[in-house]
Amino acid sequence: MGPVKPHGPLWLWLDQRVGLADLEKLAKKKQVPVHRHTIWYYFGGMTLFLFGIQVATGILLLLYYRPSAEEAYESVQFLMTEVQFGWLIRSIHAWAANLMIFTLFIHLFSVLLLRVYRPPREITWFSGVALMGLAMGFGFTGYLLPWNELAYFATKVGTEITGAVPVVGPFLGRLLRGGAEVTGATLTRFYGIHVAILPALTAMLVGLHLFLVQKHGMSVPMDVERSGAPHRTMPFVPNFLLRDMVGWLAALAALAALAAFFPAELGRKADPFLSAPAGIKPEWYFMFMFQTLKYLPSRILGIEGEIVGILAFGVGGVFLLLIPLLDRRTARGEPSRLFPAIGVAIILYMLVLTYLGYTTSATK
Amino acid sequence: MNKETGMAYALDEASTRRRFINWFLGTSTGAFLVAVLYPVSRYLVPPEVGESTAGTVTLAIKPDDVKPNTGQIFKFGSRPGILVRTAAGELRAFSAVCTHLNCTVQYRPDISHIWCACHNGHYDLNGKNVEGPPPRPLDTFVVNARGNQIVVSKGA
């Protein structure tokens, strides 16, 4: 820790009123362990950075977007063709969403494989898995907002999947759609969920998640801990933060390039009286589930195949959430091969099914 | 009354009062929460809108416009239907809502199937699910070509 720099009168004035010195002490206290797995520490911050981009570009999009079935498509078309840099803002919003889910997955699976969820960080894991659910909710609701053909059918399928859940499904499906069918009422509802409900929940959970990360400090992987190697650390401010920012700048550059070379498409306006177009696909992070539903036969043990699939994914999600409570060996600090193996199996399953989703012919 | 029992009595009285106040506060809080949450939860559930109960629809499509081995989507109330002319020339109509996950099906002239693009579900020209994930046949409508008009109605 370097010598404390002398502070100016403004700093002193603010310090007496908001307590800057406490914040400075907190920032200086935070240390990041240095070892061969340090690289994985960057992906949480990267996800948060991309979320910040989503908030900023999302607010800008709100200034032109109109959430009704009659006007939504036209307002996005206007934004893309008439508004200066409208295409850029929307494209960055779409690409940053994808990148954010991607870095979130990397963050989640690195935490899973390094078994960072062991005590006392179980609640950090729960809040992280819940944040993944919210991120996917953002993706699902945001996808509908341009009110184009792809969005319309993706939402029909997605809400129908909710409706297929036994007992509570039909009610949930109606609640989500704002009626019996996907209509303008659904669009308005998804808009409210996308721009108000999910951001509020995310802000609370991110707050909890970050608070817990500060409270427990950065976790050191079990194998590093057990190797007995001396603990090396670097200060978070400025050493790690500056490295973080290099990553953020790289992400921003990648975003700008992706937005410029592959701007977000709009497609055709949704029409409830047109057939679903051939080659219809969901966002890539839903692809493994989508492809699984395609392979399931219409009946499994007398139950509709889709319901079996949906229940299986539901059980899978609950399993993922509860891993800290199920992995008793890791909780006791004993070596455990089972849960990393399950993690690898989940990753492989998602990779293979996603690959098949993009390569098998849609019409066969 | 000696001093000890007097104190116990006072304590007992105090705890009874405390319990009474806590019970009062607790039920007030509960009542308040119910008074807030009940309207909000009812608000979130969309009102029932009377579904179009039209059992018969006259199509804007003329019989001659539907060539053999083609299909067209039409409006049947608030939901889509599909009108197919088989290669043999017969007109048939079904609900176009896939029984799997609600996508809108289309006619595939290359294999003479009704096909759903969303999850690769196939139906034959009787609306029967023959391949892929759909669990049930499509609902069948009755088609009547009266002169220059096509009238589709729900089966009896």
The CATH homologous superfamily of the largest domain in chain B is named Rieske [2Fe-2S] iron-sulphur domain
Q: What is the string of SSEs of chain A from the N terminus onward?
A: HHEHHHHHHHHEHHEEHHH
Helical content band of chain B: 25-40%
Class per helix and strand makeup of chain A: mainly alpha
Observed structural traits:
heterodimer; A: 364 residues; mainly alpha; Cytochrome Bc1 Complex, Chain C; 4 strands; globular; B: alpha+beta; Rieske Iron-sulfur Protein; 6-stranded antiparallel β-sheet; 10 strands; 27% helix
Quick structural summary:
The complex is a heterodimer of chains A (364) and B (156). Chain A is mostly helical.
Write the layout of secondary structure elements.
The complex is a heterodimer of chains A (about 375) and B (about 160).
Chain A: H1 9-18, H2 20-29, E1 31-34, H3 42-62, H4 72-81, H5 86-113, H6 122-144, H7 149-163, H8 169-177, H9 184-216, H10 222-227, E2 232-235, H11 236-261, H12 287-295, E3 299-300, E4 303-304, H13 305-326, H14 328-331, H15 338-359
Antiparallel strand pairs in A: 1-2, 3-4
Helix pairs in contact in A: 3-5, 3-11, 4-5, 5-6, 5-11, 6-7, 6-9, 6-13, 7-8, 12-15
Chain B: H1 3-44, E1 56-58, E2 70-76, E3 79-85, E4 91-95, E5 106-108, E6 113-116, E7 121-123, E8 129-131, E9 140-146, E10 149-154
Antiparallel strand pairs in B: 1-10, 2-3, 3-4, 4-9, 5-6, 6-7, 7-8, 9-10
